[in-house]
């Protein structure tokens, strides 16, 4: 059965990038995956001054609003790198936090879908036919963690 998730307070809310699970990446702590993802949009761009503001945002909603500001210039390679950046952050999140890693692993081989009515790239969009890249990322991370855990057991 397909598992739909979206808002943090709904079922499987820990799969949302807005969930309060911090990550350390390259020596910096980010309060949520969303903070990290939004900040990466500006690495190397003339608007990189916004990165510390996104980092310090009080909520992921605020971080997203800063990152979505249409008058700022995104890094030129953003469309090429964004899915890999997201994957790195989501993998880090589920490696760091054991409780939600268990929730992810317990979904087995179910299809995971970000049920965003407004986003047909990361989510499935209003018609549920969108690309669902966040769901695909989570399924790929689930597989990678499963493989990592089976290696650990084998060599223990
Ligand atoms: N969960 C969730 C959202 N979805 C998230 O928004 C991000 C995409 O942002 P952008 O690339 O700037 O359009 C990505 O992390 C996606 O999972 N958006 C929201 O406004 N509220 C929410 O609760």
Automatic annotation (TrEMBL):
In terms of InterPro entries, this protein maps to: NADAR, YbiA-like_sf
The reaction(s) catalysed by this protein are:
5-amino-6-(5-phospho-D-ribosylamino)uracil + H2O = 5,6-diaminouracil + D-ribose 5-phosphate; 2,5-diamino-6-hydroxy-4-(5-phosphoribosylamino)-pyrimidine + H2O = 2,5,6-triamino-4-hydroxypyrimidine + D-ribose 5-phosphate
Q: Origin, by domain of life?
A: Bacteria
Q: Name one Pfam family in it.
A: NADAR
All copies of domain NADAR, residue ranges: 4-146
Recorded hits in NCBIfam families, A to Z, give:
ribofla_fusion (TIGR02464)
State the protein's name.
NADAR domain-containing protein
Q: Which organism is it from?
A: Nostoc favosum CHAB5714
